């Protein structure tokens, strides 16, 4: 019952707000929207306390598909892994709902916004709690739909509408691969339910497992914005900022990571896939971080940062450091949501201005927002004792341990380098937003920048506390409750037994601090630092974007034009017109027969009769 | 004395040919109509002649049917001709070529 309630509450909120939201007061809409998720969070907290969670708490809802020997039932499964995700989704989700009641207060689409947001939470919970891969996939598609709806929330803006479309299309590419992987898995394993799947995973041929996992990972690169399908996430920033925080930073984009963790028995058996995942993750992490370095849009900096941090998670997943990856997922949800909410608060204060060149001098008027942003930034840069330090450090340690002495050590190097770049870009963003002398021309139009209302501030406060202290969920000091639980889930030996070398532990924060110092020295008092050709290289997204534009977008357009101009005009229209012309010409030549004179017809009948009679009488 | 059957048949053929030629050549709708009657009756004649020679009744019965149908047909046909005459003031069938393609 408790488990069902977790999903049912946001679902009810969606129905209420979606059906009758237009007739309710804003207060009621906000209360339903945030309240549903809040209660869901409470239910999740209660449920996670149950002892049944240790072995997986199952609730069967109904038989879903029964086709011959293949059957799928729909059920919910709460175990140590999904418990972490459920708490993150509902917890961070609740805070962002509360923030949204303040942020979206003036928006005419208030009830539509909360309906979408609640639907998203419900879909995400289905993705996380579903006990079959099929339910996960349904949730996967539903969150994609919500993402589309919310990116294009202000659909009257051309950019927002096309960004939503882009997200949808790019995701579809990944989803097609995911579906193929799932079908192949169903054929091989005969089931899509997670429990039997974990058992039968060992019986599938290794080559097949590799293909299946690669296809599933291709799906994950779409949803989690990894190379090569990352392009939709930066554009997704056209949506309302709380949406960016919730969907495009904290929860939905981590679905790929969660999926790999969920199917770890499969991925554990596919070594080639592991390498691919790790290399793609590390490359994406570095790639996106360098692009974040040269972005002028604060939200885009954070978007690329999200891609980069997701790369870390995939790096960990690829090397089977799953608890570390899930830990980073959790802390990242805290601090990236915080950063986005702070950015939203800046936008709110500046009347929608988000360009770093036009921001500055906000340290005074936006004191609380600034502190929130700084805590988030420190956590992102990996400075102890903030949350990001513990998880990122853990990932890099375990990556080092697992790749030591092999060529794969390169991914560890990339991770470390990314850590440095990360610290530089977030310092740059922080300095430009808050420290630089006021450059905003917005004064005249918007009056003085003003601090956000308390409804927006206190969710940021809670997230700030979590970003500052969340790392202790995985710290020795606090007994590593989160990591311990996850390690038991993944049936790994307690990792603490192997204490990492001291220099390794110190390396990550050192690199982070170095990055902050470098960023501070570089961007203090300056807006632009000439990076020369390297800057252009980063700005053009390593020339990947022009490549995509030319080859894929241009190619598709060419194919479309060819189909429209040649195939459609010549072949299809040609065939249709040709048939018409033949019939027309035949008709024109036949119309001479139809004289309208009865005697001609009579003569024809007579001639026919004579011929027939002649045939019968003479020739037979 | 009885006239041999071939004479009847020859008369029937002559009448039929005259009828057919009349339908094909004449332009007055009433004459065309009479030509049709001529063809029908020539066929009737051959039916009766054969029936007598073969000693069956079928031919005679068929003739009654043909006569009934001819009568009916005349009713309809004359009605049509009258209608055409009223609207066009002519019974020349060459003036009635609305169905020309």
Layout of secondary structure:
The complex is a heterodimer of chains A (620) and B (101).
Chain A: H1 2-20, H2 26-49, E1 57-67, E2 70-78, H3 80-103, H4 110-129, H5 133-151, H6 158-189, H7 194-200, H8 206-223, H9 232-235, H10 241-250, H11 255-262, H12 264-267, H13 271-292, H14 298-318, H15 322-349, H16 367-381, H17 387-403, H18 409-435, H19 442-446, H20 454-469, H21 481-489, H22 502-523, H23 533-539, H24 544-590, H25 598-619
Antiparallel strand pairs in A: 1-2
Helix pairs in contact in A: 1-2, 1-4, 2-3, 2-4, 3-4, 3-10, 3-15, 3-20, 4-5, 5-6, 5-10, 6-8, 8-11, 8-13, 10-15, 13-14, 13-18, 14-15, 14-17, 14-18, 15-16, 15-17, 15-20, 15-21, 16-18, 16-20, 17-18, 17-22, 18-22
Chain B: H1 5-25, H2 29-54, H3 58-88
Characterization of the model:
- The complex is a heterodimer of chains A (about 625) and B (about 100).
- By secondary structure, chain A is mainly alpha-helical.
- Helix content of chain A is about 70%, strand content about 5%.
- Chain A has helices spanning about 1-20, 25-50, 80-105, 110-130, 135-150, 160-190, 195-200, 205-225, 230-235, 240-250, 255-260, 265, 270-290, 300-320, 320-350, 365-380, 385-405, 410-435, 440-445, 455-470, 480-490, 500-525, 535-540, 545-590, 600-620; strands spanning about 55-65, 70-80.
- In chain A, strands 1-2 form a two-stranded antiparallel ribbon.
- Chain B has about 100 residues and is mainly α.
- In chain B, helix 1 runs antiparallel to helix 2 (about 30-55) and helix 2 runs antiparallel to helix 3 (about 60-90).
- The interface between A and B is medium-sized, with 13 and 13 residues.
């Amino acid at each position: 019952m408790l488990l069902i309630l977790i999903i049912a509450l946001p679902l009810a909120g969606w129905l209420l707000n979606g059906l009758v939201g237009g007739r309710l007061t804003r207060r009621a809409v906000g209360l339903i929207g945030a309240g549903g998720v809040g209660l869901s969070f409470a239910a999740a907290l209660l449920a996670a306390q149950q002892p049944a969670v240790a072995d997986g708490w199952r609730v069967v809802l109904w038989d879903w598909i029964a086709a011959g020997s293949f059957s799928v039932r729909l059920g919910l499964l709460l175990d140590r892994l999904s418990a972490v995700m459920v708490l993150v989704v509902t917890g961070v989700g609740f805070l962002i709902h509360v923030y949204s009641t303040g942020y979206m207060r003036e928006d005419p689409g208030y009830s539509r916004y909360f309906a979408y947001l609640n639907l998203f939470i419900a879909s995400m919970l289905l993705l996380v709690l579903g006990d079959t891969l099929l339910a996960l996939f349904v949730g996967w598609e539903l969150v994609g739909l919500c993402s589309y709806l919310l990116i294009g929330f202000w659909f009257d803006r051309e950019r927002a509408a096309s960004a939503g479309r882009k997200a949808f299309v790019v995701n579809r590419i990944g989803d097609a691969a995911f579906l193929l992987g799932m079908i192949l898995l169903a054929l091989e394993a005969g089931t899509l339910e997670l429990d039997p799947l974990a058992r039968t995973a060992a019986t599938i041929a290794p080559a097949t497992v590799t293909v299946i996992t690669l296809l599933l990972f291709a799906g994950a690169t779409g949803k989690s914005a990894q190379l090569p399908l990352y392009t939709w996430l930066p554009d997704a920033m056209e949506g309302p900022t709380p949406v960016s925080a919730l969907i495009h930073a904290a929860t939905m984009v981590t679905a790929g990571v969660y999926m790999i963790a969920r199917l770890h028995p499969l991925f554990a058996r596919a070594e080639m896939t592991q390498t691919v995942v790790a290399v793609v993750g590390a490359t994406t992490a570095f790639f996106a971080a360098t692009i974040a370095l040269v972005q002028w849009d604060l939200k885009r900096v954070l978007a690329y940062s999200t891609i980069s941090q997701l790369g870390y998670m995939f790096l960990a997943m690829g090397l089977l450091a799953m608890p570390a990856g899930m830990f980073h997922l959790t802390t990242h949800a805290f601090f990236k949501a915080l950063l986005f909410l702070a950015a939203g608060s800046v936008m709110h204060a500046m009347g929608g201005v988000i360009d770093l060149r036009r921001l500055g001098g906000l340290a005074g008027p936006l004191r609380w927002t600034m502190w929130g942003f700084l805590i988030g930034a420190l956590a992102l840069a990996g400075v102890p004792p903030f949350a990001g330090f513990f998880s990122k450090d853990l990932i890099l340690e375990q990556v080092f341990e697992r790749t030591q002495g092999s060529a794969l050590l390169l991914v560890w190097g990339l991770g470390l380098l990314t850590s440095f770049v990360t610290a530089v870009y977030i310092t740059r963003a922080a300095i430009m937003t808050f420290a630089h002398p006021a450059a905003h021309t917005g004064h005249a139009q918007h009056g003085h920048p003003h601090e956000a209302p308390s409804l927006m501030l206190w969710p940021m406060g809670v997230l700030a506390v979590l970003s500052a202290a969340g790392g202790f969920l995985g710290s020795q000091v606090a007994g590593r409750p989160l990591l311990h639980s996850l390690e038991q889930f993944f049936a790994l030996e307690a990792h603490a037994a192997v204490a990492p070398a001291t220099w390794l532990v110190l390396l990550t924060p050192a690199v982070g601090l170095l990055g902050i110092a470098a960023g501070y020295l570089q961007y203090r008092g300056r807006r632009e630092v000439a990076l020369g050709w390297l800057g252009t290289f980063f700005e053009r997204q390593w020339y990947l974007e022009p490549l995509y534009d030319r080859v894929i977008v241009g190619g598709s357009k060419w194919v479309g034009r060819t189909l429209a101009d040649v195939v459609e005009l010549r072949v299809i229209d040609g065939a249709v017109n040709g048939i018409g012309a033949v019939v027309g010409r035949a008709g024109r030549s036949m119309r001479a027969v139809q004289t309208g004179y009865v005697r001609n017809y009579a003569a024809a009948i007579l001639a026919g009769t004579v011929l027939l009679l002649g045939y019968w009488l003479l020739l037979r | 004395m009885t006239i041999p059957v071939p004479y009847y048949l020859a008369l029937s053929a002559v009448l039929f040919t005259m009828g057919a030629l009349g339908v094909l050549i004449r332009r007055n709708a009433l004459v065309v109509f009479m030509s049709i009657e001529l063809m029908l009756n020539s066929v009737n004649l051959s039916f009766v002649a054969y029936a007598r020679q073969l000693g069956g009744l079928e031919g005679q019965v068929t003739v009654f049917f043909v006569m009934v149908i001819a009568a009916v047909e005349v009713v309809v046909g004359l009605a049509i001709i009258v209608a055409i005459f009223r609207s066009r003031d002519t019974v020349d069938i060459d003036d009635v070529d609305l169905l020309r393609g």
